Structure formats: structure tokens, C-alpha cells
DNA sequence: TTCTCTGCAAAAGCTTTGCAACATC
DNA sequence: GATGTTGCAAAGCTTTTGCAGAGAA
């Protein structure tokens, strides 16, 4: 993604543009990806070496609030950021950390319980955990 | 759960019996519960104050391997241990940490993708994330 | 000037590890 | 005595926070 495209995307989202944010957008949103905060940090460092880890972490939280990315909780070790914010599910291989999207057309959750009064649905996560076949 | 019941349970699972393990079984498996490692630690401390945090953490990992408990990854802050190891799903309120079981009879996942060759299904997690109604 | 953003370093929180002491068989 | 278990403290990791300086409006 070009710098001007990333800049435009930030403006549309109502986020003040800075060089770091542009680079974080480019790292996260150029292609569909699943990246940890530290992976984003490493990528951004390649273009802007004087970027701090704290800025990357804070910016990803900001992007999440603005719905530019989604946080995935699939691994106890680290949070993963997903560039795809539309409803979909995941297939996860803990052995190699590989995360694959499963579209919401393909897979459906039926029989959703009615929520107790006062509660509001936020989202439904489905994680299909797999491992390399042993036997 | 009585000490002798917990002891029997450990024997059946093929786990050498120790006082700490008996107390961890009693804390985790007397009733259906969802507890963090530290919550288990706090409970065990009440009966056996000279128990160390490391022992609780290690023992819970051991119990997971032996399928006495299940690890739930619902919150990036901490791991939660579930006393219910049979297939079921969860409703989670991040605001207060409350976790509720949803039975597999009630809720079903349909359209499971066929796994790439060499991969084996381990489990399917469904987490219904809710929050207190704002509007 | 005023407000926001950034970098650095330190802190925080959960979990694991190293090691010596202790139990158990 | 060999093996496995425990406690303690320290280390490890990811993530957050405090604060001063830099930048933008």
C-alpha cells in the first residue's frame, strides 16, 4: 500500500496522520494478515527505525478502537491483530502459529442462546484448533 | 470433594498423589468452575498455606495433559482452567470476567471446513463475547 | 501556546525456570 | 539411593505506563 493510500485511510478513519501511523497501516493493512504487535513493530522498524515499541502497541489499540483491525485471542503468549474486520472465523495451528481465515459463509453457528437481559452481543469467536497429524 | 475422593481421582488418572495435588483437585474439581491459576493458588493456600505458586501452575499444566481440566484462552490477561472437559462452548463478559458454559446441544457449529491433509482436529472453541448493554 | 504524539525506560502482571531441599518408593 | 516433587526466588515475555521532549495546529 502506498503512503498516500495509507494517509487517506487514516483520514477517513478520523485518525490524525503521523509517519509512524502511516507505516503501521502499511504493515497491517496492505494485505490480509495476522500479525502480533511485535511483528508489526519489526516491520515498521524496517522503514522507520526510530519507532518505539510503545508507539506500535498504543497505535494498534487505537486502530482497534477505530475498527481498522481486530484483536484475536487465540494464543496465551500474545495478542494477534487481524486486518480483516468483517465477520469470519479462524483455524489455528498452535504448533507453528499459523492462522487461517474461515469465511462466515462456509461456517455457521446455530442455536445461539438468548442473552440474559442487559447483555449485548459483541462478537462470536470460533477457533478451530488443529495439529499436525500424529498417527 | 473429600480428600479420599480426590486421591482416588488422581490414582485413576495415573498421577502420583501428593498433598498439593489433592488440594488442587479439590479446588478445581469439586464443582463445575472456571478458575485462573492464581485463583486456584489462593484457594489451595487456605488449606495448605505452604503451597507455592509454581507448584500450582505446574500441576495445572500436568492436569491439562492428563485431561482432568481444560485450558481456556478467552482473555489476554490470563489463562482460565475449566473443570468441564467435555465438548461445550462459552459465553464471556470481559467487563466482569464472568464465564458461562453453553452446552453443545444448544449451540452447534455447522459447515466445518475439511482440514488440509496432515492436519488433525484438536478442538473447536466458540466464545460468545458480550457486554453490558450500553444504550 | 496548547494539545497530541513519540521514545525511552521502567513497571506491571502472568507464567516458567533453576536449584537445592525434601519425600517417597 | 534414585526418582520425582516442592518452595523460593529470579528470570522471561508481552504489554502498559510515566515522563520529558518533539511536533503540529
From TrEMBL, chains A, B:
<comment type="similarity">
    <text>Belongs to the Fur family.</text>
</comment>
<dbReference type="InterPro" id="IPR036388">
    <property type="entry name" value="WH-like_DNA-bd_sf"/>
</dbReference>
<dbReference type="GO" id="GO:0005737">
    <property type="term" value="C:cytoplasm"/>
</dbReference>
<keyword id="KW-0963">Cytoplasm</keyword>
<dbReference type="GO" id="GO:0045892">
    <property type="term" value="P:negative regulation of DNA-templated transcription"/>
</dbReference>
<dbReference type="Pfam" id="PF01475">
    <property type="entry name" value="FUR"/>
</dbReference>
<dbReference type="InterPro" id="IPR036390">
    <property type="entry name" value="WH_DNA-bd_sf"/>
</dbReference>
<protein>
    <recommendedName>
        <fullName>Ferric uptake regulation protein</fullName>
    </recommendedName>
</protein>
<dbReference type="GO" id="GO:0008270">
    <property type="term" value="F:zinc ion binding"/>
</dbReference>
<keyword id="KW-0479">Metal-binding</keyword>
<keyword id="KW-0408">Iron</keyword>
<comment type="subunit">
    <text>Homodimer.</text>
</comment>
<keyword id="KW-0862">Zinc</keyword>
<dbReference type="GO" id="GO:1900376">
    <property type="term" value="P:regulation of secondary metabolite biosynthetic process"/>
</dbReference>
<keyword id="KW-0678">Repressor</keyword>
<dbReference type="GO" id="GO:0000976">
    <property type="term" value="F:transcription cis-regulatory region binding"/>
</dbReference>
<dbReference type="GO" id="GO:0003700">
    <property type="term" value="F:DNA-binding transcription factor activity"/>
</dbReference>
<dbReference type="InterPro" id="IPR002481">
    <property type="entry name" value="FUR"/>
</dbReference>
<keyword id="KW-0804">Transcription</keyword>
<keyword id="KW-0805">Transcription regulation</keyword>
<keyword id="KW-0238">DNA-binding</keyword>
Amino acid at each position: 500500500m502506498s503512503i498516500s493510500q495509507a494517509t487517506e485511510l487514516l483520514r477517513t478513519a478520523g485518525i490524525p496522520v503521523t509517519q509512524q501511523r502511516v507505516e503501521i497501516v502499511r504493515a497491517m493493512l496492505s494485505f490480509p494478515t495476522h500479525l502480533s504487535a511485535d511483528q508489526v513493530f519489526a516491520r515498521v522498524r524496517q522503514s522507520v527505525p526510530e519507532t518505539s515499541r510503545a508507539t506500535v502497541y498504543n497505535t494498534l489499540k487505537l486502530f482497534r478502537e477505530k475498527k481498522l483491525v481486530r484483536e484475536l485471542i487465540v494464543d496465551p503468549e500474545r495478542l494477534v491483530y487481524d486486518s480483516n474486520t468483517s465477520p469470519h472465523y479462524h483455524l489455528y495451528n498452535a504448533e507453528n502459529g499459523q492462522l487461517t481465515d474461515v469465511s462466515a459463509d462456509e461456517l455457521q453457528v446455530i442455536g445461539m442462546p438468548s442473552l440474559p437481559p442487559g447483555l449485548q452481543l459483541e462478537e462470536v469467536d470460533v477457533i478451530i484448533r488443529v495439529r499436525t497429524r500424529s498417527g
